[in-house]
């Protein structure tokens, strides 16, 4: 009987030990870019108060974070616009889902050579990101700035072939989004995403010679996860934490308008293609 009791007791100890070890290793890995790390540091701190452990994994490109979620290397990511996300997962055939909104980061036209967009001269070079989503977004920004005209009905899908008027014969050069800030050394101007601008030491609020507004739903950034985990309660809690007043106030103060908080449910973006 004593031996049987000892065996049962040992079994209970092993079970409890295993459960304890599982709890300690239950960490949510969040992939994000350098510019968004300060916000996620705060989310991490707030999550700990709800017994949620977060590990921040930093990326400096727009490709690896989605692949890392798909492979299970990380649990969620937060770095991309919903339109980029939808395009990327379709092209790569990834089973991912948007589970929460974060911010909108207005794209800007930057320059070391001019101080106003109207100072562009004939033949000047403009560097823009080459990935399909940001390329279309950059072209729409150039049209809004009044320097090119695009085909009627252009919705951001497609490349420079959609330009129908380029009166200043601007040389538009496409590069990886992460290289657009480097283009400022040679080109007259460069169109740079806000997070990449911050990484390069630029101020996305004050430095652009022209800047888009924050009204387009297609460019709202989102939190993404594997589709099978879109209803995961822990992930939902993290989205809720991101939408707290404390995080909103932090973003407004930290980025001074470079990032505009969006606290709408993910369903808010269902009609972004009509926006």
From TrEMBL:
Topology of the protein relative to the lipid bilayer: Lipid-anchor
Subcellular localization(s) per the UniProt record: Membrane
The keyword Translocase belongs to this UniProt entry's keyword annotation: no
Domain of life: Bacteria
Pfam families for this protein: Lipoprotein_9
Keywords tagged on the record: Lipoprotein, Membrane, Palmitate, Signal
Keyword Cell membrane: no
Signal peptide limits: 1-18
Transmembrane segments: none
Protein family (similarity comment): Belongs to the nlpA lipoprotein family.
This protein's name: Lipoprotein
Organism, scientific name: Lederbergia citri
